[in-house]
Here is the input.
Amino acid sequence: MPKPLILVTNDDGIRAPGLELLAKALESIGEVRVFAPESQQSAVGHGVSLHKPLRVTEISKNWFMVDGTPTDCVMLAVRALLGQRPDLVVSGVNPGANLGDDVTYSGTVAGAYEGMLLGIPSIAVSDVSYAPQRLDTAAAVAVRVGEYVLERGLPEDTMLNLNVPDVAYTELKGIAVTRMGRRNYQDEIITRQDPRGRLYYWIGGAEPTHEVEEGTDFEAIEKNMVSVTPLHRDLTHHAVLHRFYETRIEL
Ligand code: MN
Here is the structure.
């Protein structure tokens, strides 16, 4: 039996420690190919580069650097460069949570989202600490969940978003299958002047807070559990469709 082919990407750039740990860990369950951005791409969301050429550099065996986004990386790898379809796409390990509303901003989630769009079982993995000490734990969790997914597959149009507490593997309290919670962002627009006297703006502010509601990804993390949220490709709010049918929006 040939080993499964695993495509690994991230949004922090090809030199990020979380990527290296993840790729190494996944070698225990498959043949790994890394396609990762040249530079920091955090919070680029599902962006794709349509207005510039993309360059790919093989920086070491099976490690490919792309001067684009995580979505570019997965698209190029699967549609052009891998030579065969991967059995699994894993994106991460991101240093910092991708919980609740973070999901649509996240380049890490987008890497897996693109895998899902291409019909490949895909997983995004984040360590919830912005200054992580235990990226190895998240990498080990990715291997466990990766094995599960390789064995059983995923439902159609579904990807998994994993968030892992920044603790030793033995301190984890298990896995919780969760729904997305809600963030309260505290973004503040900082206005400053550049050396030429022109104004510039920087989106900053304090770390976002959140509400801990039952069954959410945030609750799992509070309990020191791994949060596994199945995300669906269809963003339609099906439960409210009928209301718009009834009240009719007309031209
Ligand atoms: Mn990132």
User: Anything to note?
Assistant: The pocket of manganese (II) ion is lined by residues 11-12, 42, 94, 107-108 (CB under 6 Å). The chain has seven helices and eleven strands. The CA atoms of residues 202 and 224 lie 33 Å apart.
